[in-house]
């Protein structure tokens, strides 16, 4: 199974959608992330927190009231 790694920044109050993945490992480096569309329910991550997720359909990731920096490995 191919693993792709991304380092990303989401601006204040911005969101993104990730489709067509089987699992994702997210690590929030700075700021806050609100993640929806997971089997685990809605999740909040702050700087220094990590999580492994299995999306239901598509992950939706939204930043908080400041820029958020994170890494994501998808399969």
Tell me what the structure shows.
The protein is an all-beta fold. The termini are close together. The mean pLDDT is 93. It has one domain (4-74): Jelly Rolls (Sandwich), CATH 2.60.120. The strands form two sheets. The protein has a four-stranded antiparallel beta sheet, with no helix packed on it. Strands 2-7-4-5 form a four-stranded antiparallel beta sheet, with no helix packed on it. 0% of the residues lie in helices and 67% in strands. It has strands at residues 4-10, 15-19, 24-30, 32-38, 43-46, 50-53, 55-63, 68-74. It contains no helices and eight strands.
* CATH architecture annotation: Sandwich
pLDDT < 50 runs, ≥5 residues: none
What is the total tally of β strands? 8
Give the helix proportion (percent range). Answer: under 10%
Overall, the morphology is globular
Topology order in helix (H) and strand (E) letters: EEEEEEEE
Based on CA atoms alone, the radius of gyration comes out at: 11 Å
- What is CATH's topology name? Jelly Rolls
User: What would CATH call the homologous superfamily?
Assistant: Jelly Rolls
CA-CA gap between termini: 7 Å
Largest sheet: 4 strands, antiparallel
Count of helical regions: 0
Going by helix content, strand content and strand pairing, the class is mainly beta
Task: Tell me the name of the CATH class.
Answer: Mainly Beta
- The number of domains: 1
- Approximately what portion of the residues adopt beta-strand conformation? over 45%
Strand order of the largest sheet: 1-8-3-6
């Amino acid at each position: 199974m191919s693993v792709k790694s991304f380092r990303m920044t989401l601006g204040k109050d911005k969101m993104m959608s990730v489709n067509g993945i089987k699992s994702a490992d997210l690590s929030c480096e700075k700021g806050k992330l609100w993640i929806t569309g997971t089997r685990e329910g809605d999740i909040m991550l702050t700087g220094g927190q990590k999580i492994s997720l299995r999306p239901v359909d598509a992950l939706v990731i939204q930043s908080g009231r400041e820029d958020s920096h994170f890494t994501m490995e998808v399969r």
